[in-house]
Design brief:
D-Maltodextrin-Binding Protein, domain 2, alpha/beta, TRAP_DctP_sf, TRAP_DctP, 2 domains
Amino acid sequence: MAFMASILVGCGGGGDKEKAAEGDKGKVIKMRLAQSKADNHPVSQGYVKFAELVKEKTNGEIEIQVFNNAVLGSDRECIEGAQKGTLELAGSSTPNMASFTNKFLAWDLPYIFADKEEVYKVVDGEPGQAVAKDLEERGFKVIFFPDYGYRQFVNNAKEVKVPADIVGLKVRTTNSPIEIADYKAFGANPTPIAWGETFTALQQGTVQGEGNSYSLLWDSKHNEVLKYATEINYNYSSDICVMNKKLFDSLSPEHQKAIMEAGQEAMQWQRELANKRDAECKEEFIKYGIKVYEPTAEEMKLWKDAAKVVWDEFVVPGQADPEYVDSILATLGKTREDIFK
């Protein structure tokens, strides 16, 4: 915890909350926020906006330096740094957080969210609060959930319209066991690879495809190693911004309030940007020459039918907790049958 002593100058080295509040007033507290996405990605811009708002709301008493492009490590490395306290804040896509709480497995279930309106109901509602509570027990303070977007299937081997077309393709996935299961169900050969290594893996033929949002793919120049996109919306991924819990607890109530308010304001700002940017990047894909295929209703039914086995496998105690899945569906006012009808 050496970094705590250097950052929280004047906080009394573990004194009570009142002393901490007196100690960090008027001091410039420097923090780092690290994550893996490109500088111009909406998630990255949301983190920069957050840092600006924190500085403004604390009258310059807290300064957050944002590190994008995986310069301080992969999602996993940054998140573990925030948990251990060697890094103050970190961002990650939620599938890479599944090992910290299995509630993210429920978020990863294929086709659980029909649209962004449903996503926001869950993230902003009781299911999102339950995730934050779990993560507090593991050393994190959840600050906010930037909008990452729906994952589409993209590849450089052939046009894919239905699951039968994907059989045998090597596909990069996150570490989410559900995303791995998704691609097994579709008939592909899933291969978990860190995001920062994916471009090279596609370039060298280690994998032939991946699942990701249009904006992340375009902003990371993956269009240069891709030829085809299939818009199947099989998985929505949120991003998450967390702070080391001990560090957060050591701050004054005023600074804690400022950080949380900045997170909520940055999240609303970033959501608008993310939705606009994803639509723009889809058009950029098309202009670049990527062949984008939008399945018919009948073809989408085939993708959903293929994914049913993932629900059967994971919506069980110890995996995607059935009660938590039910709480998500109740929040959305629908049933599992409604998803696959």
